[in-house]
Amino acid sequence: MVTLDARQRAALAAICDAFAPGDGAALPSASALGAVDLAEALVAGLPRAADRGRLSTLLSLWDTRLMGLYLGTGPRRFSALDAATREGALLRLGESAYEGRRVLFQALRALAMSSYFLAPGPTGSSPVWAALGYPGPLGVRADAPRPPLEPLSPAADTTFDCDVVIVGSGAGGGTAAGVLAGAGLEVVVLERGGYYDDADFDGGELSGLRNLYAPGPTVTAEGQVALVAGSCLGGGTVVNWSTSLPTPPRVRAEWAECGAKQFDQPEFSDALRAVSRRLSVNGAHSVASARDAVLERGLRALGWHVDALPRNVTGCDMGVDCGRCGSGCRRGAKQSVTKTWLADAAAHGARLVTRVDVRRIDVRDGRALGVRASTPGGHDVTVRARAVVVAAGAIETPALLRRSGLANPNIGRYLRLHPATAVWGVYDEEIRPWEGGLQTRYSDEHSDLDGAGHGVIYETGPANPAALQGFMNWRGAAAHLATMKELAHTAGVGVITRDRDFGEVRVGRDGQPVPHYRLSRHDAGHLGAGVEGAARIIEAAGARRIYSSHQAGPSYEPGKRGSHEEFTAACRSAGYGPGQCAIAALHIMGTARMGDSADTSATDPDGAVWELPNVVVADASCLPTSPGVNPMISIEATAYMNATRLAARLAA
Ligand SMILES: Cc1cc2nc3c(=O)[nH]c(=O)nc-3n(C[C@H](O)[C@H](O)[C@H](O)COP(=O)(O)OP(=O)(O)OC[C@H]3O[C@@H](n4cnc5c(N)ncnc54)[C@H](O)[C@@H]3O)c2cc1C
User: Fold this and answer.
1) What domain range includes position 63?
2) In total, how many domains does the chain have?
3) Residue of the nearest CA to atom 47 in ligand 1?
4) What was the pLDDT predicted at 2?
5) Hey, whose CA ends up nearest to atom 13 of ligand 1?
6) Most ligand 1 atoms within 8 A of CB, residue of 240, 390, 440 to mutate
7) Together in a domain, 345 and 267
8) How far apart are the C-alpha atoms of 387 and 652, rounded to whole Å?
């Protein structure tokens, strides 16, 4: 935890106000809105002391003459500059030829602008939301049912004994818990986040971010890809967008070739079926949102592939509530693992323990004995078990394995991210992109751009202001505000890249994960082709203005200003390097991949780590390569399979 001193806080306020000065009339500045306090809290919440320390050093230096030289404003302090010069200094940073400066700009922009759009302000309902036509949080439902689960949160040093301890309760861990407890094993699930249910969800971005998402790492070490992951009981399945696509046959064959043959056999088909059944995956909740209607219109006009997306929801309104589901489903419609597999596990006697951070696996004589964890209050939690299932997500799983002394160099390698960006269209018609089914249409028109199954898929997603601004450039405060004021008429087309190449999660001396990932030329080429394809879709759908997520700000107005050709040339020259284009990963995978040799994989065909046969990985880390479609069903099916095999081994 860092506490900023007065000088650092003043520097943070000056930065936030330079990004978001308000409009001098109805719209307050960042500091007047309380966004600076929020920015400070976001910094304090970063898990790595090194990241917090870097920011606090920067803030100490910010208002010095030396920093003026760095910012190109001469030996003058930031506080001595007028508003236009401050803005110019920030823009120069963002457009710098130096990667480090651009990355710094993006970090400051993200902190300042997300805080500005998240902050409710003194009245509890931000005037900025009103100016955007955005209604703000919906509020909690008075008629929400009582939360059905009763997890434990130890308030003293505690020891548990069981058959299997599961670390992490997301897509993978939740599924494994349901399977193992259902097989009659005594299960303890340890989850770092808290338990939240329908009655807690208010449809607001701020409460969602505070309660349900991982505080970090928020971006890859190179600053190229923002990372978004859930962190609560149920993990990513509580916040995700309910798209439920099975693993494509071609990918299954590729995974089998990596050594876990069952990916291409009935065992995995059965697992996919079992998961889809348990999550109530169906096609009856895919009425197109306005965003998706526009996507479909463009795709049909071009004669490109379009299809409805199956979703794991029952009783979804596909309307006002659904668009807020990234902050938890107020209606209990989303069949997260909390509603399904974890409920099954609890019904079979599994103990669910929240707010415990697992620090290491206890190992003796080549076998795991259990795990050690700690609570925010500083209490030790020890679990003794016959087997350990690691399912902390593809960033934290390799870190836990490394902290526990495992040395296989493949642990942490093969980080896949499905790097995603968006192209935006502004339409005459009202879209209200924060409403409607989370994701209901997709296109795989360009899913194979290299003849080897790598390319992009197109999807939309709910656009609430704080999340959306992360995909927008900032070309000055007034321009940014003007763009955001068009939000109600804006819809994006997401471009999700099936990455052929990969990065790596390393572990710092502090034991925290440090994800490294640089988009390869090959994959960046595909992302760029996707941006060009998305612009075509948006133009065919009749948008009056089209712009990308590049900081350089390429845009055009079909029939009026510029052309698709000029736009794509501008996008290519703007580039996809760190700080050049907003790229994010919602699908984080591959860092303990399964295979048939310790030389090429971190886990064996049972999902067990090569060095410890009674430690099984059961989350996105196991996936041998990128699935190329939204991964939840692939992850749950893999966890189902690995947990079923483990149950059989423990019974034998
Ligand atoms: C906003 C968003 C939208 C998405 N939409 C879709 C979609 O529509 N369809 C789809 O298929 N996929 C979607 N995804 C992706 C999908 O949800 C994730 O890929 C999936 O949840 C990952 O599963 P996992 O088990 O690997 O990790 P997670 O689900 O992230 O679970 C890991 C859990 O481990 C816990 N943990 C971590 N470290 C520790 C520790 N040391 N001790 C204890 N607990 C720990 C975390 O708190 C977390 O709860 C989306 C993701 C996001 C973020």
Assistant:
1) 6-132
2) 2
3) 231
4) 62
5) 240
6) 240
7) yes
8) 14
